[in-house]
Design goal:
about 450 residues, about 30% helix
């Protein structure tokens, strides 16, 4: 049986081509699946249980997808709701859904799949030998879960299938693997397992596997032998090279992809162009594992930050920016010790040279001297007050500190007043493990509600 999956975008918040979406809906999909986020933007959103994307933008895109769902008459599924997929962001997305249902006069059944984990439960599983580290290993022990502000487990197809089995019109899932929402219905309806998982991996980021990646919308047809992918934007094309290359995206191994309950092996995959727009893939294999495991992600508060940005334009300082911040850093550490009585374990002071090596650091090999360099000073401390005090101490020296002892006082530029900005709480990832489950739903909760509007 063929299962047609409509994927409108790589994530809610990125936008999509409205004409392409209409074209895809007219092609009669069996389900609409979209990702809500990931860990791409760092640990802050998991740490705080909040969305990276704004409510207005999320609401506008979700409104278009709820209208598309109603027109197509098929389920609408979002995974990793609200960027991080905590219970709080599932509820946030459900609130938006209820508002829109009232506005649009829709009657819908909503299934909410919760992925947040209780720290005590994870600690017990750890003590029972059911939690194991992944690479890269984050040093942690059985006491680590108690220090985390949020822990989530990544749902797979089993949990998404359970949500679909409720007969829900809309599924709002907490943290899921990027592929699970797409693969669930095809697998439920008898699609080739390797093809279902492989197609889901290719489709996770929408039209990124096409010549028009920002258009968002693609269709994937799954069947008993494999899958076919086609972008829906006018003029967009899928090619074997672009489709196969997506196995490299956010994956350490271009041939193997690990998921709850097994792994995908695409070493035998064959990619062929059916038309200029469509690519057919067969030969992928799904390899079940002996144990059912889910990945755990956790974040914790690690301090507070203040920043100061200063810009250098005098040519000699631009040419010697790294030497200047090295000298300034040594000086400031001495001033902080003598004036505030703080040692190296009480705070951190880092510099990023914007326009020179802010992205690659020591790996930067670009020739030539930029016209100007922005120096971003980053202060990290246990409290916001301490971070702010250190930033204020550093302020005059960032503005006037000389490159050498035997030259007149320099003057640089602060683009903002006040020069220092409180970044607030800083979070770090502190859990990168898998947990063994006796039953796939053991670590998840499913709630269903009816929203009725005439």
């Amino acid at each position: 049986m063929r299962t047609r999956v409509l994927i409108p975008t790589g994530a809610i918040g990125l936008g999509f081509d409205a004409d392409a979406l209409a074209r895809a809906v007219a092609a009669k999909p069996d389900i609409i699946c979209v990702d809500g986020g990931s860990t791409d933007s760092g640990p802050f959103y998991l740490g705080t249980g909040t969305s990276k994307y704004g409510r207005d933008a999320t609401r506008a895109e979700w409104r278009a997808l709820m209208l598309a769902r109603a027109e197509a008459g098929v389920p609408l599924v979002v995974g990793t709701a609200g960027t991080c997929g905590t219970d709080s962001t599932v509820d946030w997305m459900a609130e938006i859904t209820r508002e829109l249902a009232a506005e649009l006069g829709q009657t819908v059944k909503i299934a909410k799949l919760y992925s947040s984990q209780d720290a005590a439960t994870v600690t017990d599983a750890w003590s029972a030998g059911e939690v194991h580290p992944l690479e890269p290993v984050i040093p942690a022990d059985a006491g680590a879960p108690a220090t985390l502000t949020n822990i989530v487990a990544l749902a797979g197809v089993e949990q998404i299938t359970a949500a679909l089995d409720t007969g829900a019109d809309i599924v709002i899932a907490g943290r899921t693997t990027d592929t699970a929402t797409i693969a669930a219905l095809p697998l439920k309806r008898g699609a080739h397992p390797g093809g279902a998982w492989h197609g889901a991996k290719i489709g996770e980021c929408g039209a990124l596997c096409s010549t028009n990646p920002t258009s968002g919308v693609i269709l994937i047809d799954f069947d008993e032998d494999g899958f076919t992918v086609q972008p829906m934007a006018e003029g967009a094309k899928a090619t074997p090279a672009l489709v196969s290359a997506h196995m490299l995206y956010e994956n350490s191994d271009p041939f193997i992809l690990y998921e709850p309950g097994g792994h995908l092996d695409v070493r035998g995959a064959r990619y062929s162009a059916l038309t200029e727009r469509e690519v057919r893939v067969e030969g992928s294999e799904w390899v079940p594992s002996d144990n059912y495991t889910v990945k755990l992600e956790g974040a914790r508060l690690s301090g507070y930050q203040s920043t100061i940005l200063v810009t250098l334009r005098e040519r000699r300082y631009v040419q010697n920016a790294q030497a200047w911040v090295d000298r300034l850093g040594t000086f400031l550490h001495g001033e902080i010790a003598s004036r505030m009585g703080l040692g190296p374990d009480d705070y951190a002071l880092d510099f990023r040279l914007i326009g020179q090596n802010a992205t690659l650091g020591a790996l930067e090999n670009r020739a030539g001297t930029p016209v100007e360099v922005g120096v971003l000073a980053i202060v990290t401390a246990p409290t916001q007050q301490r971070a702010a005090e250190i930033a204020k101490l550093a302020n005059p020296f960032l503005l006037h500190y000389p490159l050498t002892d035997d030259e007149p006082q320099a003057t640089f530029a602060f683009p903002f007043s006040p020069a220092d900005s409180a970044r607030g709480a800083l979070y770090e990832f502190a859990l990168n493990h898998v947990m063994t489950l006796d039953d796939p739903m053991q670590a998840f909760r499913l709630e269903v509600e009816e929203v009725a509007h005439a």
